[in-house]
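As a warm-up, study this chain.
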Amino acid sequence: MTDGQFAPTVHDDIELARRMLIGGEWVGALSGKTFPVYGPADGRVIVEVPAGDAADVDRAVAAARGPLPPPSGNLGEATLLLDSEPGRASADLQIVFIHVPFTNPWQAAPEHGYTFGVGHMRPASRGSLTLASPDPKVPPLIDFRYLHEGHDLRALVSGVRHALEISETTAFDEWRGGRHPLVGADDERIAAFVRDAVQSYGHAAGSCRMGVDSLSVVDPELRVQGLAGLRVADASVMPEIVSTNTNAAAVMIAEKASDLLRGLTSASA
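Now compare it with the structure written out below.
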């Protein structure tokens, strides 16, 4: 790794983490800033989430009763894949319905509610990962560069509009506490909301991209270029981000790495 002024130089021709795939841009639920839809209108509780750690939340959700059965654990039991604009070859937006208030740890949440999370699965913006110190215990410098490409902002504005439309359907009448203030807003206002609320989708990838050129970090067999005895087998090798969540693709990469190490060349070998 050769970023900044730090030695030793191992590879000065590898594009290490210069174009990190940001793993999707996400507008989740945050009181006043992101996309909460408060409810229920008649005082019924969707789920009681106590103040406490993640284990407290897990226990509360497991015992919940509401419009959806208790989830298997990821809080995203209903999702919608759709296009941000007409004519796309494949969906680039994911809207996730989460039946509890969902926020970042440092942000306040309503006591009761549910969430629409809007994710852009095919962002054009690219982040970077660089060294802050030669000491491996020092955290690296991560710059996600959210919304650096204008298309990403337009896509999320489209996604928020779709989520707002869903939130206003009759299916939510008995649960909705009131209309979200962005209902009926123009693109400029929604774009301002997106800029303020955007965060990581939690699926960053591509900082050690695979390829056959001299700037690739690993070759098609996951071997680090020019360094014997080292392979990388995780989402960092993805040359492009996959649509929707990266878990299945990361497992596939690991399975392929296992086959390569055992000398297998195909699934049937």
